Amino acid sequence: MKYQRSSALFVEAQKVIPGGVNSPVRAFKAVGGDPIFVEKAQGAYLYDVDGNKLIDYINSWGPMILGHAYAPVVNAVVEKAKKGTSFGMPTKIETDIAELAVSMVPNIDKIRFVNSGTEACMSAVRLARGFTGKDKIIKFAGCYHGHSDSFLIQAGSGAVTFGTPNSPGVTEGTAKDTLLATYNDLDNVAQLISANQNEIACIIIEPVAGNMGCIPPTTGFLEGLRELCDKNNILLIFDEVMTGFRLAPGGAQELFGVKADIVTFGKVIGGGLPVGAFAARSEIMDYLAPIGPVYQAGTLSGNPLAMAAGLAMLNELNKNRNIFESINKKTEYLHNGLDRVLSAENVKFTINRIGSMISVHFSENKVVDFNSAAEGNNDNFKKFFHGMLDEGIYIAPSAFETWFLCDALTYEDLDQTIEACAKVAKKLK
Length: 429
Ligand SMILES: *Cc1c(COP(=O)(O)O)cnc(C)c1O
Fold this sequence. Notes:
One of its GO terms (molecular function) is pyridoxal phosphate binding. The chain contains 14 helices and 16 strands. The chain is α/β, with parallel strands linked by helices. The strands form four sheets. Strands 4-12-11-10-9-5-8 form a seven-stranded mixed sheet, with helices on both faces. The protein has a four-stranded mixed sheet with strand order 1-2-3-15. The structure holds pyridoxal-5'-phosphate (PLP). The site of pyridoxal-5'-phosphate (PLP) has 15 residues, from helix 4. Pyridoxal-5'-phosphate binds next to helix 4.
């Protein structure tokens, strides 16, 4: 495959945009080479500026669960745009999507819309702090909750108590309020809580981690967090930016039967437009301005185009609930196929899958947390990524990302992907 035009456009982009991209993971830093510039997309396929057709396993990092340019979503946006694109005043469609979201997701009474998952998680933590009157938060190593300051904290060997910032620009003061825990390790969380009695406002977690590859929670882990939170007057925040409206109509809360106190959304809820949201029971949500003391706002929040896309998307998922089963079956089929062809080549690998999230870790050990995810063979991943790309299969350009399937994928697409993997596997160690 040729990528000349993409490479030429990347040269131009780098002159005026830092690194040539508006979000770092789009640059192929982890795999080498130049990023692909997209011309258009339809259903399960991307068409790049060099005329290549690719089967897409990223789907805009999750939102396009029904495939690209899905007609009901596109039509809703086009019709809305004709009536004006932003007013900064209330519109009925905001209530319509709020009612639908609240009806689909368990355990929430009210929801507020923002413009990104980052904003949703940042606001959820502020709300949790305001509501509990406590400052510290617990997050898990390897979980991503957007790029606001409190979340850009990673584990160092001495970080059992206090995290250290892993980006310049995040102050020590902010970092000290973020405590780092190990995913799927309840004892570790219990220790953090007892070392910081009455100081922890909330635990924020991806109920299925997707930002260190796909890592599902081990049996009892989420239930255990719920218990620890109840005993210690801590709010449990499920960051469902990836899992919301993907793992089930009601997200991970529904799938696992575990209640969160605050839930954050992004990705699917916006149907491909910039939308995030956070939701909780009334008692908590009413702590927000204008009726409560915790401030939170947005000029473009609840934007009519964004709400039209989100509402059309949620309507489709709500009406056609068999979509979830259909997409899960496709993912299982892909899992079995990849497993078969990788095993045939004696490659060391582990596949994690839940619902329509799946990832191939090039490690023979179980991948259950950040450290086990980091053990993967990155040389193999790079070869795998570029090999698949040359076969017309687009997966995330990083070993630490889950794949997201869309329901537009056909079984022929999946067979083509498995055949591509069989070829590429021969080049791996
Ligand atoms: C993508 C993501 C975010 C951030 O959302 P943005 O819209 O990129 O700001 C937060 N949490 C999780 C779990 C995500 O996957």
